[in-house]
Design goal:
192 residues; 11 strands; seven-stranded mixed beta sheet; alpha/beta
Length: 192
Amino acid sequence: MSDDPGKTTLRTLARERRRAFLTSLDPLAHRLAFKAIPSPLARRLTGAQTVALYMGLDDEAPAQRLAPQLAAMGKTLALPRVIDRLGSMDFLTWTPEDQLFPGLYGTHHPEPSGPAVTPDVIIAPLLGFDRAMNRLGQGGGYYDRTFARYPDALRIGLAWSVQEHDALPADPWDLPLDIILTEIELIEGPEA
């Protein structure tokens, strides 16, 4: 996917803003963030069987912290596996006790012992979001392609509140998020 210079600049600024925010965040507030699933989100997840999380890298919001509550809700958990540098990834079942193996771009994934699974819910990392439910990712197109491949999956962005922007540019292939969860707020799109 081609990337315009505006998005590249936004990504740099978003990383710096996120890093500064986390440096100033109270350690207890950091440890408690994303450990609970708000009731409105839990209701939206009722019919879902497989929820795809991710292992937070660097300063990303830590999706893995949602795993115990999702497992207690009876959900099958999955993590992404980056297959190649062309934007391909799939999802492998995972439990928090599973050993993870190194993947591309510093990612980690479960051992690919079984077939890939189809997620009903995809929880995605991001660098920025806006109230129009646009998501600014890392620029590789992995989640854009994944959202297109699983159009019926509920798309949830996980972010720190400081990652909100007034408006983000959206390309034709960008699919909006359905829900955004931050450490302080649950934002639901107009279709919710």
